[in-house]
Amino acid sequence: MGVGVGQILSRIENVLPKLTKSEQKVARFVLEAPDEAMFMSVQEMASRSLSSSASVVRFCRSIGLKGFPELKVALSADLAQGQKTGYFDLNKNENTTVLVDKILSNVIQSLKDTVGQLDVEMIEKVAHSLYKAPVIFAYGIGASALVAEDIAQKWLRMGKNVYAFHDIHVLTMSMANAPKGSVFIGISYSAATKEVLQLMKFAQKSGLTTVSFTGFGRSELSDISDFNLFTSLAPEAKVRSAATSSKHSQFFVVDVLYYAYASININDSIDKITRTRKATNELKNLSET
Amino acid sequence: MGVGVGQILSRIENVLPKLTKSEQKVARFVLEAPDEAMFMSVQEMASRSLSSSASVVRFCRSIGLKGFPELKVALSADLAQGQKTGYFDLNKNENTTVLVDKILSNVIQSLKDTVGQLDVEMIEKVAHSLYKAPVIFAYGIGASALVAEDIAQKWLRMGKNVYAFHDIHVLTMSMANAPKGSVFIGISYSAATKEVLQLMKFAQKSGLTTVSFTGFGRSELSDISDFNLFTSLAPEAKVRSAATSSKHSQFFVVDVLYYAYASININDSIDKITRTRKATNELKNLSET
DNA sequence: TAACTTCATGTAATATTATTTCAAAAAAAT
DNA sequence: ATTTTTTTGAAATAATATTACATGAAGTTA
Description:
The structure is a homodimer. By secondary structure, chain A is of the alpha/beta class. Chain A has 14 helices and 5 strands. Chain A has 2 domains: 8-81, Arc Repressor Mutant, subunit A (Orthogonal Bundle); 120-276, Glucose-6-phosphate isomerase like protein, domain 1 (Rossmann fold, 3-Layer(aba) Sandwich). Chain A has a 5-stranded parallel β-sheet with strand order 2-1-3-4-5, sandwiched between helices. Chain A binds a DNA duplex through residues 20-23, 41-43, 46, 51-58, 67-69.
């Protein structure tokens, strides 16, 4: 399907600083005249953007597409779609139907924003770290504890050793003895949770690979961790439902990470998941007899 | 607007009877799988539609396009404009960027479907039951346990007595002595989890108000409960990411329920949430000194 | 039904377009 | 200042789209 849900333009904007000089030329041209770009050939775009056809193709790869033709398709979808969702405030005495629409809109916008600035390479790197890790630890407090739990459930299903302890002391003890290559994932939407920061430092000291999972933007937590996963930052001041949308975004990133992980060795993954399912059914049958 | 940004699919339908036999083959193929067609080469489409590459090109001309590449662009625009999202299968060796878009699309579609068949009155009824309940119990297994936890966290924040025990025996004991008007929420996306059904029956027997929270469709669980909350049923067979999308839908319904609940007595709710926040901050400060 | 005409069709040749390779240039690192 | 790495575009190659054309089917006329 390509970039079906649009957002190619915002993705280009996001990766722009990471591109090479001549790729940036192409990027700027596309951002300026996507409607023209849509119908151009590689060579045409190369000359219009004062670069080369090779750079145009490289640009397409850099923004995560398979090739040039996909760029046209993606642009077309993006332009046709326009922007429809946005953040809405929830008012007093709201009609429930309106409420539902607003919450939906907020969640979708938050997800789209998260996708817009998702660092695909980072996802892949983290997925590989997890793949090699003998043990995985995930920790978060409050709503982030649910995310940690979700991580645990998902990777257990894949046959991994994952722990989402709530008890800091138990977690500390486990990490102190974790084998090399083990990973600690510290989850805090605000990036300001003291406990998570403490544990992150401890994990680092103990030689674990560390992953921070926070709302967008630099923070001490993201600075000191080896890898960073970000979710979009809802305009908190405006929307009281921030906690709600942010949770969806966090779960979404976990979903993505999970599938990225699974596709490292897809057949093995499918095997393991199938075995897990069978086990669940078996348990059911055993209790019935 | 330029070429192709119209309703290319309906144009194809319109001219279909006027096309030659082999052009019709192409047309039917495109109508059936526009999302696939979007990324094909001429030769691929020729073989898939059991025609020839020449016929494919002739077809493009016949529907008023300049050539084959324009068909892709037009289809992309059409699909993006129309049903923006849909359910997509995740394939092996998927490019991560494409993966992200597919997951996003699946989640959004699942949310939209859930909203589509959400019974607003039912939400309000359940919200009122919760409002009057002296104690609330939520129970689910696996991914549904996360939902139960989420419910607990949300209503604790509103000053309610909520329990999301994992231990069936503890839960049973608590419910046996629960005051009148207490509510039990049984969560099972499949509606087939034995434990949830058992507890639902027990809750009923103990005189609690019961709420089932399942995937759409009748089930024993939903039949015996006083109120039913449904989430959309993803086409499981097609999408391996079902568990993923369904979780989002479930959390979404909880969000809606939460805001519906809060708006029953909005000022009181805001007070309580504010107090909860202050408490969290205070704890932080206390540990810093 | 045979002979002719028209139109539809797929194959193969050709033209166009996308992609890769590679050597040179530029930028970083040492 | 020298080496290494990265970036770059020209040119070669691969892939893809388009066209030309021969063949055969369907229709028409005698």
